[in-house]
Amino acid sequence: MKKFTKEENSWILYDWANSAYSIIISTAVFPLFFKAAATSAGVSSVDSTAYLGYTIAIATFILAMLGPILGTIADYEGYKKKFFTFFFTLGIIFTASLAFIPGEQWILLLIFYTVSTVGFAGANVFYDAFLTDVTTEERMDRVSARGYGLGYIGSTIPFIIAIAIIVLAQSQVIPIAVDTASGIAFVITAIWWGIFTIPLLKHVKQHYFIKREKNPVAKSFKRLGKTFKEIRKYRALFLFLLAYFFYIDGVGTIITMSTAYGSDLGITSTNLLIILFVTQVVAGPFSILYGRLSEKFTGKKMLYAGIMVYIGVCIYAYFLETTLDFWILAMLVASSQGGIQALSRSYFAKMVPKKNANEFFGFYNIFGKFASIMGPLLVAVTSQVTGQSNSGVFSLVILFVIGIVILAFVPEPKEESVDRSAII
């Protein structure tokens, strides 16, 4: 296979840029920072985990509502980059702002976290849709997997810096409070995210689009309505989105709530940060491996493999007792989380009409985001009802089982011809 082009590399580098947010804000530092702030305010550990789950649900609901609408408008010539830039800018501003909110203001922390998540996830909608612009169908699996792989590897750099600052502050080696150290980590995330987004802004262009016309907003709503009416004509797309709705719910929930779960098990913050760092290192090459194996075994079979690993993760999580158990769980997650996300993205990109990529990735987003509401709520409610966080994680098994069953009915992209000129 020939080398990656400048446009492909510029697109791939955005995964390197925004993965700092995924690990530091979504997964590691912010959840621990929030739980410490909530605990100091008298909130129980179970309730703080539940509140974080509710907050994630609210943020994803906002994106689920906006995704298809904004995506449909962004299919017009020149709009995709503008929408991407808006959400990306929103994300880095509110991410950096987290550093300046007093720890005891835990409700305000959740509000700013919600806005930063909207910016992060909103930019990803248009970033994912750019995959159809930067490469060919034959290269999509490898390009998408390369993005996730480098994202996991690249995110370890700001993560190491953040961990070092926090651990040194905890050990009083450097004369700053742990809260201040966490704030520095939030600023580092925003700077890293911003700098490595520049190549995408400079080199990636919207090659597939709909020509601009009068009343673009009104016309966009008409096209969106037409898509809703005709979505059943795209049997493969519809079935895949339905399967994706369930299995990606479990994946996202485990990623975003893993540190809160580990904290509830009594694992120290330092151990959690180290485990998450190693998880990122391991996930990188495994993501790339998934992309290469998909060329031999097909993307669908590799999605099966990833889902089965996650079913094992949920079952194993129920019996967790020690830090070693959490290490084993983390490595199992690392082996598949990047691969399943990368191949889902490229699998869908092969099936969508390229001129309407934003609109269809809006649906991809709405299915993924509505799923992300259900997962955290399921964990939150189950944890509060049973009084045990491990029961909440175990409840996610049903989502993966439903997802893999539906996926079995989804044809490979080559097996079903998709009319790429339809829905204009």
Automatic annotation (TrEMBL):
Localization in the cell? Cell membrane
Which InterPro entries does the UniProt record give?
Atg22-like, ATG22/LtaA_families, MFS_dom, MFS_trans_sf
Q: Which residue range or ranges hold the Major facilitator superfamily (MFS) profile domain?
A: 236-424
For the keyword Membrane, the answer is yes
Q: A Pfam family for this UniProt protein?
A: ATG22
- Transmembrane stretches, by residue range? 12-34, 54-76, 83-101, 107-127, 148-169, 181-201, 236-260, 272-290, 302-320, 326-348, 360-381, 393-410
Q: Which UniProt keywords apply?
A: Membrane, Transmembrane, Transmembrane helix, Transport
Topology versus the membrane, per the UniProt entry? Multi-pass membrane protein
Question: May I have one GO cellular component term?
Answer: plasma membrane
* Listed GO MF terms: transmembrane transporter activity
Concerning Gene3D superfamilies, the annotation shows:
MFS general substrate transporter like domains (1.20.1250.20)
| PANTHER family registered for this protein in UniProt | AUTOPHAGY-RELATED PROTEIN 22
Full protein name: MFS transporter
Species the sequence originates in: Rossellomorea marisflavi
